[in-house]
Design a protein that fits this description.
The structure holds two protein chains of two kinds. By secondary structure, chain A is an all-alpha fold. Chain A has eleven helices and no strands. By secondary structure, chain B is α+β, with helices and mostly antiparallel strands. In chain B, the strands form four sheets. Chain B has a six-stranded mixed β-sheet with strand order 6-7-8-3-9-10, with helices on both faces. A five-stranded antiparallel β-sheet of chain B has the order 13-17-14-15-16, with no helix packed on it. In chain B, strand 1 and strand 2 form a beta hairpin. The chains are: A mainly alpha, B alpha+beta.
């Protein structure tokens, strides 16, 4: 049977896809281009990728990014999860207010987040460096973890925990054997999102970074100012690939668990 | 011997009375049903006994021990939830063993009890399945097995068959009754289905708006309802008023005659309902704005016409006072 959709609809979605993905496709293609000049295709090569891994500055930026991402992910996942758990026993008025405050960092423009953190750090005399970038990343990642874990907890309801208690489980046993296994996919998804956000963040990091804590996005920005090189294309391609894989994994964890309502990422 | 004793328990939610002061004793091995429309407070009573709600006032005793302030995990009774609340990340076997594991029962005894519960609920074939791989009826059985594996003193059941279709519900009702007999433990059952209550219970507590309307055996409640609500909620009934008093007469006690002069009331046949095992006439009375339902005797082979003038009467012995 023929689809009832208007033929122009298909064309429209095709154009949309091209509009969104064409720039990314170009970066990926040119990262394999043998020629140093972007406009001309002169054959396939891996050499920009291999030269990346021998570049001291790139490796340093990568290490900085990974350290910051790991630390901010661990801390924001723990804090966000604990916040989501404790908010369940909070009174409804208090909860509404706290919810709003916890959602806010998602809505506040990055530039304001960055600027306000910079002002804060200067005011209280914390030298800009890895620590300040970590703190900044924790502040915005925490909200995402909170939102995702809260959604999971809401989907779970109270009955399972009541059943556990009824069967003789103490509060700790209920948490350990019922609540935690039920929300683990949410926690993992939240952690993956936090990691991706930290790895990709430019705007907030730009304000609070110091001389020794250049992250990959900031390094790329610095390089691009001197013209786009094929190495940068390769670096971007890697970042895109890692981000896509992490988000797909997060989505997979969110959908894990039969009989549970499907949740999508609040991105 | 009293297994459960409720002493003047009441429950308010934000200033509103959900359960009016209620005292009730339940015997060991009794099958007691809390019956009433939704929102009548029956589930709240069950949740107070289980420990999920704290009574605003009054006390609860379980097997002679006061449990009013005990948390749910310290009460020697189990609840079968309306939507089963099986743990999705555990197999059937793990679900059933959960309570024993939490109480640190020795493993050999755990195994024994789980097997026993599996056998009683005919789940032996499904031990390694996860809840989402089971049908509604099977999930229901797991919920019951999980509760009885702990050998509780009392089993609480909150509309356990509510989510199942009629056929399955009927067969599980029979199973439940047999299970209760063979276990010999006290069952407290919550339902809004009056037929289910009649079929299963030793005693029924009829509730309405947070208040007890009547407590009695199914027969007492059917034959001598004490309130208007009890009279109309259980089975069909005809409510007449005379001299400011209300009385009820069951359809099977109403006689319909063609000789109008011999009857106490006159009316017109408005509808004829034939359901195989029952044959009913709906008669619109001439002098009062009400319909009378009469269930005809099996031996009755008279043919009736809609619109026909008839007389209805009954033996005064069958009048049950239900209020004024």
């Amino acid at each position: 049977m023929k689809s009832k959709n208007h033929p122009l609809l298909g064309l429209h979605s095709l154009l949309m896809m091209i509009f969104i993905y064409l720039p990314i496709v170009f970066i990926v293609i040119y990262s394999f281009n043998d020629s140093r000049i972007n406009a001309k295709w002169s054959g396939f090569t891996w050499k920009w990728y291999s030269s990346l891994f021998t570049d001291r500055h790139v490796m340093e930026a990568l290490m900085n990014s990974l350290t910051i991402a790991v630390v901010s992910t661990v801390v924001s996942t723990i804090l966000g999860t604990v916040a989501a758990l404790s908010m369940r026993t909070t009174g409804s008025k208090m909860r509404a207010g706290m919810n709003g405050l916890l959602y806010l960092p998602i809505i506040i423009p990055d530039i304001i987040m960055g600027l306000s953190l910079l002002v804060l750090f200067t005011q209280i005399h914390i030298p800009l460096g890895k620590i300040t970038v970590m703190i900044a990343h924790i502040t915005f990642s925490l909200s995402y973890v909170y939102v995702i874990v809260t959604a999971r907890l809401t989907g779970m309801g109270k009955q399972l925990e009541e059943a556990a208690q009824d069967l003789g489980a103490s509060s700790w046993q209920t948490f350990r054997y019922v609540t935690l296994p039920q929300i683990t996919p949410g926690i993992i998804a939240g952690a993956l999102i936090a990691f991706t956000l930290s790895l990709d963040d430019f705007m907030v990091s730009f304000f609070v970074t110091g001389p020794s804590s250049t992250t990959l996005p900031i390094y790329i920005y610095g390089q691009v100012k001197r013209g786009i090189s094929p190495e940068i294309n390769a670096l971007c391609t890697i970042l895109i690939a890692v981000s896509v894989i992490l988000i797909l994994l997060a989505q997979m964890f969110l959908n894990k668990g039969q009989g549970q309502k499907k949740t999508t990422l609040p991105l | 011997m009293h297994m459960i004793e409720l002493v003047q328990i009441e429950k308010h939610f934000s200033g509103q009375v959900v359960v009016h002061p209620l005292s009730l004793t339940i015997k060991e091995g009794e099958f007691l049903t809390l019956l009433g429309p939704s929102g009548c407070g029956k589930t709240t009573i069950l949740r107070m006994i289980a420990g999920f709600e704290q009574p605003t006032d009054g006390d609860i005793f379980l097997d002679g021990q006061k449990v009013t302030n005990l948390s749910p995990n310290r009460r020697d009774l189990n609840l079968v939830f309306q939507h089963y609340a099986l743990f999705p990340h555990m197999t059937v076997e793990e679900n059933i063993a959960f309570g024993l594991k939490m109480k640190k029962t020795p493993p050999s005894q755990q195994k024994e009890r789980v097997e026993e519960a599996l056998k009683m609920t005919q789940l032996t074939q499904l031990t390694k399945r996860y809840p989402h791989e089971l049908s509604g009826g099977q999930q229901q059985r797991v919920a019951i097995a999980r509760a009885i594996a702990n050998k509780p003193k009392v089993l609480l059941l909150d509309e356990p068959l509510g989510a199942l279709d009629l056929q399955l519900r009927k067969s599980l009702q029979t199973e439940l009754k047999q299970l209760q007999r063979s276990l010999g433990i006290t069952f407290i059952y919550v339902t809004h289905d009056q037929e289910e209550a009649m079929m299963l219970s030793d005693r029924i507590v009829i509730m309405n708006n947070g208040q007890v309307e009547q407590i009695g055996t199914p027969r007492e409640i059917y034959e001598t309802p004490r309130t208007l609500f009890a009279a109309t909620f259980i089975g069909e009934n005809n409510i007449f008023s005379s001299d400011g008093r209300l009385f009820a007469v069951r359809p099977e006690n109403i006689r319909v005659v063609r000789e109008i002069n011999k009857a106490s009331r006159k009316g017109t046949v408005q509808d004829i309902v034939y359901l195989g095992n029952v044959h009913k006439l709906i008669v619109q009375l001439d002098d009062e704005p009400m319909n009378v339902t009469a269930a005809l005797d099996f031996a009755d082979d008279r043919t009736w016409q809609i619109g026909e003038k008839v007389g209805v009467s009954w033996n005064p012995l069958h009048e049950v006072m239900v209020g004024s």
